[in-house]
Amino acid sequence: MSRFFSHRFDSLEPYVPGEQPKDSRYVKLNTNESPFPPSPKVIEAVNEASVGRLRLYSDPDCTDCVKAVAESAGVLPSNVILGNGSDEILSFVFRAYCDDDTPVAYPDISYGFYEVFADVFGLERRVVPLREDFSISPEDYFGIGCTVVIANPNAPTGLALGLDDIRAIVASNPDNIVCVDEAYVDFGASSAVGLIKEFDNLIVVQTFSKSRQLAGARLGMGFADEKLIKDMNALRCSLNPYNVNSLTLLAGAAAVKDAGYFEATRNTIISNRESATAELKRRGFTVLDSKANFLFASHPEHSGEELYLRLKSLGVLVRHFSKPRISDHLRITIGSAEQMRALFDALDEILK
Ligand SMILES: *Cc1c(COP(=O)(O)O)cnc(C)c1O
Question: Do the Cβ atoms of 287 and 335 come closer than 8 Å?
Fold first, then answer.
């Protein structure tokens, strides 16, 4: 660090994304992207004419894409905010709704960015341990007196809470914001978006990165009561009013309108997940009951780090976290049938 960097950041540890290798040597099952290309409609929308319009600023209100997202979710445009990835929406939540009197609460095992945001914004925090079986105990969050951030399904476990539990957490914290990060909800969990009409303290965050083939476009959305959307838009317009670029706005609107492609690709991932779960169990792995596009698995005879390194040497990238409680686990993204075949061939080589 330079001698000019504010001392506020002395102990900052930035988020470490999964490896993004520059070559395509690897079967890439480490960062939960889709194995499929974007919808053909997206490729039509991002054409020569739209590239030509890059000379102009993007629409700061994201009008057309907000409308498409709202229609698809069954809410009003005034209930929607778009961000440069859902990470940006989450950053608005941490900035807007936490302060000295209101710490942020999240599970000890969850999306790594929550801790990074708490650090960079200097927030008080309440880190709530998952149960021994890695599930979230909803009761731990009842009337907790903090801004609550929960990923549902949770990452990297893939376990999901039912809507009744989410509702109970939101209802028991009427004077605090509850943010449900639904990055993986499309792969089999129930969305809380329908509850935003009922609760003025609920923010639901979703992304185009996992189930809509647009991780590199950087597009996320938040759903909430109109007043909360106004708060977050005030922050957005004070930081970067053109936060979503114009090609991404076109891509996002086209993707969300192509419901058929979305359904077909996510159903393929769900079915590949179910067969991969059986294949892993057959090889002696313990596998959590995932409702996401990844599996969280451990093997009784091989450490997580060993499996990660040996898979990598055989050309298969998965994610390993050197963190207490989960260092013996691997997080394996569900890819195409062919990619999963390559994973199991490599595992057979390692386990033989
Ligand atoms: C991937 C992921 C995100 C971030 O998604 P982007 O929209 O790509 O920023 C947010 N939350 C969780 C739990 C994720 O796994």
Answer: no
Closest CA to 253 of 60, 44, 90: 44
**Is there an atom of ligand 1 within 6 Å of 182 CB?**
no
The CB of 222 under 6 Å from ligand 1? The reply is: no
Q: Which atom of ligand 1 is nearest to the CA of 219?
A: 7
Distance separating alpha carbons of residues 294 and 210, to the nearest angstrom: 10
Inter-CA distances, 319 with 19, 24, 151, Å: 9, 17, 18
pLDDT digit string, tens, across residues 237-279: 999 999 999 999 999 999 999 999 999 999 999 999 999 999 9
**How large a percentage of the chain has pLDDT more than 90?**
95
Average pLDDT over residues 162-174: 98
Distance 64 CA to ligand 1 centre (A): 23
Best of 20, 111, 294 for a ligand 1 pocket test (most atoms within 8 Å of beta carbon): 111
